[in-house]
Specification:
The protein has 137 residues and is α+β, with helices and mostly antiparallel strands. It contains six helices and five strands. The protein is globular, with a radius of gyration of 17 Å. The termini are far apart.
Length: 137
């Protein structure tokens, strides 16, 4: 993974610094996180301004992307580093979960966009509601 990250950064005249590697590690194999959580988890190793600059760079280069959830957002690694997926978001507790993969859904999206003559460059799907824990309490 670090080789892919380093190559992508190098292609865009940037290097794999320790702070960038740390932020990448904080996103790797994690559920989407708010900036507040990332800053807290990086504390002592990467200062707040560097976290924000790194995320801005990662978003610009397609390494990470934002999940817009209402007026808030969370950050996760992009499809370059994770398998393409969609999300479920609990509006009660704020938990974000991956929606199980469904090839039929992806085929339907492709079919609908092709029918309209649209050439998509990507897509996201967010399902809002209550998670099992919140629903049962």
């Amino acid at each position: 993974m670090y080789d892919d990250l380093a190559a992508l950064l190098k292609k865009n005249n940037a290097s794999l610094t320790q702070p960038r590697k740390k932020i990448f590690d904080l996103l790797l194999n994690q559920e989407p996180q708010t900036m507040q959580v990332l800053v807290r988890r990086a504390a002592g190793e990467v200062d707040r301004a560097s976290v924000y600059r790194t995320i801005e760079l990662f978003e610009r280069l397609g390494i990470a992307h934002r999940l817009n959830i209402g007026w808030k957002y969370k950050i996760e690694l992009s499809d370059v580093f994770l398998e393409h997926h969609h999300h479920m978001y609990c509006t009660n507790c704020g938990k974000t979960m991956d929606l199980p993969s469904n090839p039929m859904l992806e085929t339907m999206i492709d079919s609908l966009t092709n029918k309209e003559g649209f050439s998509p460059r990507g897509h996201s799907l967010e399902v809002y509601g209550w998670c099992a824990n919140c629903r049962n309490t």
